[in-house]
TrEMBL record:
Residues 9-89 form the Mycothiol-dependent maleylpyruvate isomerase metal-binding domain. SUPFAM superfamilies: DinB/YfiT-like putative metalloenzymes. Gene3D superfamilies: dinb family like domain. It comes from the Bacteria. InterPro entries: CHP03085, DinB/YfiT-like, Maleyloyr_isom, MDMPI_metal-binding. This is TIGR03085 family protein.
């Protein structure tokens, strides 16, 4: 079993235990909305693309809203959970993405649900799953920090340090290091730094510049 499927099963259990109307780390989205997003992403990507193109206020996406409306009752919510739990078939392109395209999505959204009410307690995940997650983080981090005014590296105990963005001069070494468990680094890299158990180190000037830039994104 791929790690994405392990994480899907864990996320399904969390969806069933959570209050569907509870907030998540995704601005404007409840647990119910986030569940709908995952189903829409995997089974109706065109609707997701149209919603994104329209640039709606978060929580007011027209097509996603219509899907979420089907889950207003307990039975409807469970039906949507079951649809997500069933996964994607062999002809669905999302299946082809494997851990490289799905694991990070599932882990981050799992924490969106868990930490939406302020809980920052980390889960204990298998070392293999954390290694697979770490493998996929540099690409996302390079995209996230491509316009950061200071250089950035990511680090995790036992997994080393990886430079993901050079300082604008192109000559200086990375100015700040974002360190933590792979899940915490994933939250930071995906724009959820306030909910992450992360340590940012570097000179006072450079860390201040990083935090100011991150707060304004």
């Amino acid at each position: 079993m791929r790690w994405m499927e392990t994480e899907r099963l864990a996320l399904v259990a969390t969806f069933r235990q959570a209050d569907p109307d509870a907030p998540t780390l995704c601005e404007g989205w409840t647990v119910r909305t986030l569940l709908g997003h995952l189903v829409q992403r995997e089974h109706n990507p065109w609707a997701r693309m149209l919603d994104t193109t329209a640039r709606p206020v978060p929580g007011q996406e027209r097509r996603l809203g219509a899907l979420v409306a089907t889950a207003r009752t307990a039975a409807g919510y469970e039906a949507l959970v079951q649809q997500f739990a069933a996964g994607t078939g062999p002809l669905n392109p999302m299946t082809w993405l494997g851990d490289g395209g799905q694991l990070l999505e599932y882990v981050v959204h799992h924490e969106d649900v868990r930490r939406g009410t302020g809980n920052k307690d980390p889960r204990t995940l298998p070392a293999g799953q954390l290694d697979a997650l770490w493998k996929n983080l540099p690409l996302m981090a390079r995209f996230t920090y491509r316009r950061c005014p200071v250089g950035v590296s990511i680090a995790s105990p036992g997994r080393g340090t990886t430079a993901v963005h050079r300082a604008p001069s192109g000559r200086r070494p990375a100015a700040v290091v974002l360190a933590g468990d792979p899940v915490e680094v994933a939250l930071c890299v995906s724009g959820r730094q306030r909910a992450a158990n992360i340590e940012v180190t570097g000179s006072p000037e450079n860390t201040a510049a990083f935090h100011a830039w991150a707060a304004g994104k």
